[in-house]
């Protein structure tokens, strides 16, 4: 079986791995192997950039109204909301 040595690990990262290992009742080496196996068992996760995935959503909302009309409706609904009416309760 091969050996792997990793140097210059950030203290916060090491502490996170140590806590995971402790919670799972594993050694730190066993936990690192577990994390690597778990990550590598999903090859579809490689190459996904969360920012790119988020930006793909841009422009996906379709509405016949203009942005100004949508904003006006949101503001109107906020003013007429019963949520802010006085109810003689503790936090009114």
Please characterize this protein's 3D structure.
The protein is mainly alpha-helical. It has one domain (7-83). 49% of the residues lie in helices and 0% in strands. It is built from 4 helices and no strands. It has helices at residues 11-23, 28-40, 50-55, 67-79. Helix 1 packs across helix 2 (28-40). The protein is elongated, with a radius of gyration of 26 Å. The termini are far apart.
What characteristics describe this protein?
single chain; about 90 residues; mainly alpha
Low-confidence stretches: none
Quote the distance from N terminus to C terminus: 68 Å
- State which percent range the strand residues make up: under 5%
The count of β-strands is: 0
What is the average of the pLDDT values?
82
Largest sheet: none
Structural class: mainly alpha
Number of domains: 1
- Taking Cα atoms only, what radius of gyration do you get, to the nearest Å? 26 Å
Helix fraction bin: 40-55%
Order of helices and strands: HHHH
What is the 3D form?
A: elongated
Continuous helix count: 4
What's this model, at a glance?
This protein has 92 residues and is mostly helical.
What is the element layout, followed by pairings?
Layout: H1 11-23, H2 28-40, H3 50-55, H4 67-79
Helix pairs in contact: 1-2
């Amino acid at each position: 079986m091969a050996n792997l040595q990793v140097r210059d690990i950030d203290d916060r990262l090491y502490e996170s791995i140590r806590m995971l290992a402790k919670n799972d009742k594993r050694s730190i080496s066993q936990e690192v192997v577990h994390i690597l196996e778990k990550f590598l068992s999903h090859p579809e996760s490689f190459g996904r950039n969360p920012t790119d995935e988020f930006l793909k959503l841009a422009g996906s909302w379709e509405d016949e109204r203009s942005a100004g009309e949508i904003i006006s409706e949101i503001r109107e609904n906020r003013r007429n909301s019963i949520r802010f009416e006085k109810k003689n309760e503790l936090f009114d």
